[in-house]
Design goal:
By secondary structure, the chain is mostly beta strands. Helix 1 packs parallel to helix 2. The longest helix is centred in the middle third of the chain and has 9 residues. The chain is globular, with a radius of gyration of 17 Å. Bound molecules: zinc ion. The site of zinc ion has 5 residues, from strand 4.
Length: about 210
Amino acid sequence: MHERLIDISPMVSPRLGVFPGDTPVERHVLLDMHHGDAITLSTLRSTVHVGAHADAPSHYDRDGRTIAEQPIELYVGPCQVVRANAKRGQPVTRDMVEAKLTTPRVLIATGTFPDPDHWNDDFAPLSVELVDFLHESGVKLVGVDTPSVDEVTSKDLPAHRRIAQHDMAIIEGLVLRDVLAGTYELIALPLRLEGFDASPLRAVLRKT
Ligand SMILES: [Zn+2]
């Protein structure tokens, strides 16, 4: 049987926007069969916060777990995609999320970062009030279709900090444009990168 998966990851390429000052994607070709080598072989240089990626707690909490120390069970299982009535440049509040939350993983489609190949600064962050509401609803993982759960210029990172207090996991950089609201199975495993503060992942949904 050919079971269809819904890909919610952007293409990883040098076009992909990264945070100002972070390391963009580069591919260095060491060997190339098109130029007579026996194999093709290349090196990837990039921020680990590239495309769809999981933030490790160690990214925003001095004592937080690294990405290799995160329980992998967080990243596979029942998941709800919800659409928020979000506006660019304004935090997503609780009343913008109208759906009843029923799963431990919630992906919030804000629509405020429409094209990962064209970076825009004014994507909608998550309000602390919404993070509290997610926690009270039993949510253990929150995913967003923006590069960050906080504003691009934020230094105090209120949403990241509150998520750390509640020990929730974060996935950023998802592409949820064509995904219908509803419940799915999420499969989005980070790599086992020793000591790292994040990992890119291939995030997919399976209809349940
Ligand atoms: Zn990140």
